Amino acid sequence: MGAIKEIIFDTDEDDFYLLANKYREKLGFFVLKIPEINPLNGKFLIKWKNKLDIGDTNIQVLRND
Length: 65
Fold this sequence. Notes:
By secondary structure, the chain is mainly beta. It has strands spanning 2-10, 15-23, 26-35, 43-49. The chain contains no helices and 4 strands.
């Protein structure tokens, strides 16, 4: 994982969300959900390869009960 742009922590679910601009030397838009308790059990929510370099970023968690 390279070019990390934003990391947030969701206190309701105890997960980290990471937005990055590179994965395995490929440019793109990558969002991972990483549990606090078992970080090796993280998973990609978005894995979109493109040739765009993200500049200004912001990531938020939205819930709908």
